[in-house]
Design a protein that fits this description.
- The chain has a domain at 56-143: Immunoglobulins (Immunoglobulin-like, Sandwich).
- Helices cover 21% and strands 34% of the residues.
- It is built from 1 helix and 8 strands, in the order H-E-E-E-E-E-E-E-E.
- It has one helix spanning 2-32, and strands spanning 63-67, 73-74, 78-85, 90-94, 99-102, 109-115, 119-128, 134-143.
- It has a 5-stranded mixed β-sheet with strand order 2-8-7-4-5, with helices on one face.
- A hairpin with a 5-residue loop joins strand 7 (119-128) and strand 8 (134-143).
Length: 148
């Protein structure tokens, strides 16, 4: 029992540190990037399109998991997690036994191999956009070690 509590505290601390470090890094990267050129429009003229200072915090974070399906049963301990998000987002995956940090490809697709533990496995997938908004999906899958 003590081992599980210590492991949970350690895993939670590691995930918190990784998330905080990533957000700090993205904020530093945003601060050090040169300002974008904005076109000067005469006052009173209508604006066509989004303003150069559009608020990133109003965007929603897209996250769709295509595989595995919730409550799916597996007879192998290795599975492939696949999904789609926005290309500029980052993905953090936390399972009962491990944590993963991955980046999607230029179209927003991502995939990674996960190792399951015998029995019920909870998989938490979080996508974070450059504004720091997070969308999380949780999937429960089962790895059966029973020979059928």
């Amino acid at each position: 029992m003590k081992k599980e509590i210590i492991f949970a505290l350690l895993a939670g601390s590691l995930l918190g540190f990784a998330s905080t470090s990533f957000i700090w890094y993205k904020n530093q990267q945003k601060k050090s990037s040169p300002p974008q050129a904005s076109s000067q429009e005469p006052s009173g003229s209508p604006s066509n399109g989004p303003s150069p200072t559009s608020d990133l915090s109003s965007q929603t974070v897209k996250l769709k998991i295509s595989s595995p399906q919730p409550d799916e049963l597996f007879s192998k301990d290795q599975i492939t997690l696949e999904g789609i998000t926005d290309p500029e987002n980052s993905i953090v995956i936390v399972t009962d036994s491990d944590s993963y940090f991955i980046l999607p490809d230029e179209k927003g697709n991502f995939e990674t191999e996960l190792e399951l533990q015998g029995g019920l496995n909870q998989i938490n997938i979080s996508a974070t956009n450059p504004a720091g908004q997070i969308q999380t999906e949780t999937i429960l899958v089962t790895f059966s070690t029973a020979k059928i």
